[in-house]
Amino acid sequence: MNLLQSIKMAWKSIIGTKVRSLLTMLGIIIGVSSVIVLVSVGQGTTSQITAQLEGLGTDLLTVNIMGRGNTTSLSLDEAMELGEIAGVKAVSPVISDSVTVKKGTTNDSVSIEGIVPSYEEVKDFHVQSGRFIIDLDNEFRIKAALIGTEAAQTFFGSEDPVGQTIQLNGTSFQIVGLLESKGSSLTASNDNKILIPITTAERTLRNGGIRSITVQANDSKQISTVKASVEAALDKKFQNADNSYSIFNSQDMLDTVNSTTQTLSLALGGIAGISLLVGGIGIMNIMLVSVSERTREIGIRKAIGAKRMNILLQFMVESTFLSGFGGLAGIGLGYGLSALIGHYTSLTTTVPYSIVLISFLFSLFIGIIFGVIPANQAAKLRPIHALRTE
Amino acid sequence: MPGAAVQSAAQSPLIEVRQLGHGYVMAGEMMKVLTDINFTIHYGEFVAIIGPSGSGKSTLMNMLGCLDIANEGTYRLEGVDTSKLSDNKLAKIRNEKIGFIFQSFNLLSKLTAYENVELPLIYRNIPHKERASIVEKSLRTVGLHDRMHHKPPQLSGGQQQRVAIARAIAGNPPLLLADEPTGALDSKTGIEVMEQMKQLNALGHTIILITHDLSIAEQAKRVIRIQDGRIVEDRGEAR
User: Fold this and answer.
1) Residue range B124-146: average pLDDT?
2) pLDDT digits 0-9 by tens, A43-102
3) What is the DSSP string of A68-83?
4) pLDDT tens digits, residue range A71-83?
5) What are B18-56's pLDDT values in tens digits?
6) Which residues of B fall below an 8 Å CB-CB distance to A?
7) What is the spatial distance between Cα B91 and Cα A307, in angstroms, rounded to a whole number?
8) Residue of A2, A305, A382 with shortest CB distance to B94
9) Span of the secretion signal (chain A) (predicted)?
10) What ipTM is given for this predicted complex?
11) Contacts of B137 (CB under 8 A, 6+ apart)
């Protein structure tokens, strides 16, 4: 008797007890589908966060100055000196604050950033109309401003904001450019802000020091050497004081996020894996019941010439079929559920093919493992005992 | 083929039983079920083994059917000593040399008549096409070829027993072993089944019939009577 015959026999017996077979498979179906759904949510979230972090630029270092003693910030010149470090392409110091902006009768609190022209390149943030801040604006402390799309909507509605004036803390600024829409980053909206020359900002915001600098390296591969050089320069400036500054690199963040989500995915997958195991035990349970129910059938088969191997194979194929079909149904359900979750919630879901394959193979494996004990029990039955059973 | 049963090896007997004995240990005491059983059965015989219940005839039937192995003595089937064979070898003998006909038919209720008859041929690895012609021929022999796609619950008792007979003869075994074949049937169908058995014997099949019913046993050519695990009478032996 070959495998094909065993498969035919197993199929007949599964079809013969449809409801029971379905209930038996349910454990595996739930196990496999929950593995797929949980991992797909985990993966989707990871890739979403990764994309956002990569959007921040992996060739960038964000330096935050906390200072030491009375020196709590850097001057503009000191900040710009960082640009002379080898491997640094551009430096973009920023002074930021939140101020009350007034246009006619409209009042709102908007975040203001004092910037230098290299901001455009470093942050990859351009104007869609008008012009960007230029060196001349900083040199003469021009009261020029760039406005984000959301802020423009608030103060000007559908009117073109370029060329109009706006009050920042009571000082009039002329809007010279409308920024392109960039959407929200991890932290805040990029579109509800106003950019002004950094020297003008020092006066308007009555804030003489720079606490945030973005340093762009020539190449993201050089980022660690550049980071070390920037650290050396800052250590010198703050005389090695602890916690006087912090340097953040989006690659570091990416690594942290990746390892966190990986752990999370593993934990979720593990929990779902346990339900797969429970499903396997369910299969074993039913197969054991099935063996004792079918003792007479086994006896008849043995009497007419079935060898141990034939009986063993028949029951093994049956349990493997149950788990395999359960696995397939679980994959279908898992795909469906993660598509639904992706559609109806804000979560992003990605079903990785590897996890589909792994969970299917695992369910087959479970069917084989948990089929061994019942199948062996059936194969060991002595024909006269089996025939005597009613 | 069922129509032309094995007639070979007329020189050596089909079955040789020598000093066969069997017992079980029960509550520390040896319960002797069979003692000093000796007989020879030749090809083409129709033998009834008769005895009251508890006489040991079912145990003897299990031994003859290679479903169990005796503690003492030898049992040769076509010259092969079965007492030291492995489980798999015994399964092969049951498959190729013995056709079983049981009191309770012992058909698989989820399979059709056709599939039931096919089963021993599957275990013998006979290819699909060849199987189909053998199964049809066997069912034709018992007159059930028009019911071959019915399942046992859809058939009457007599029909079920005929399916079982078709299954027994499908593999063309040298020995047909019938254990109370009419026991679960009414007297009319019982007579039909016995007629069937006589026909098969006329075609050359060797038949051993185990029964407690003297009227059934009398229809065989030879009767071996068992009582308390011993042969008390053996009449009508060929040669």
Assistant:
1) 92
2) 888 888 888 777 777 788 888 888 776 677 788 888 888 888 888 888 999 888 888 898
3) BTTB-SB-HHHHHHGG
4) 777 888 888 888 8
5) 999 998 888 888 888 999 999 999 999 999 999 998 888
6) 62, 65, 67-68, 87-88, 91-92, 94-96, 100, 102, 106-108, 110-111, 119-120, 122-125, 167, 171
7) 6
8) A305
9) none
10) 0.90
11) B1, B2, B3
Closest Cα in chain A to B122? A1
Q: What angle do CA A40, A41, A44 make, to 5 degrees?
A: 80
pLDDT tens figures, A207-255: 768 888 888 888 877 888 888 888 888 888 887 777 788 888 877 777 8
Domain boundaries, chain B: 2-235
Torsion of CA A42, A45, A50, A56, to 10 degrees: -160
* Burial per residue of A200-210, b for 16 or more beta-carbon CB atoms within 10 angstroms, e otherwise: bbbebbeeebb
Nearest to B62 among A12, A308, A384 (CB): A384
Q: How far apart are CA A258 and CA A268, in angstroms?
A: 15
CA end-to-end span of chain B, whole Å? 27
A312: number of Cβ within 10 Å: 20
Q: Is A101 helix (H, G, I), strand (E, B) or coil?
A: strand
pLDDT value at A186 more than 60: no
Question: E strand or H helix at A385, and its extent?
Answer: helix A383-388
Q: CB–CB of B64/B15 below 8 Å?
A: yes
Confidence of residue A184 (pLDDT cuts 50, 70, 90): low
Contact between residue A87 and residue A222 where contact means Cβ atoms under 8 Å apart: yes
Structure token pair of residue A148:
């984000």
Question: What residue segments make up the domains of chain A, in order of their start?
Answer: 3-52+255-388, 67-243
Given a contact cutoff of 8 angstroms between Cβ atoms, the answer to whether A247 and A227 are in contact is yes
Q: How large is the angle between the packed helices A250-293 and A18-55, nearest 10 degrees?
A: 180
- Partners of residue B235 on adjacent β-strands: B223
Q: What six digits make up the tokens of A339? A: 């598509």
Q: Which residues of A are less than 8 Å from B67 in CB distance?
A: 303, 383-384, 387
Contact yes or no for A171/A143 (Cβ under 8 A): yes
Query: pLDDT tens digits, residue range B165-202?
Result: 999 999 999 999 999 998 888 988 899 999 999 999 99
For β-strands A106-115 and A193-197, DSSP reports them as: parallel
pLDDT of residue A335: 94
pLDDT at A51: 80
- The predicted pLDDT at position A41 comes to 86
In whole angstroms, what is the distance from residue B15 CA to residue B40 CA? Answer: 5
Ranges of beta strands (E only) in chain A are 60-65, 88-103, 106-115, 127-130, 144-147, 165-168, 171-179, 193-197, 212-217, 245-249
Question: Does residue A328 have a pLDDT over 70?
Answer: yes
β-strand pairing of B29-41 with B222-227 = unpaired
Q: Could you tell me which CATH number the domain at B2-235 has? A: 3.40.50.300
CA distance A331 to chain B (A): 31
8 Å CB contact between A212 and A63: yes
- d(Cα A338, Cα A49) in Å, to the nearest integer? 18
**What is the pLDDT, as a whole number, of residue A387?**
83
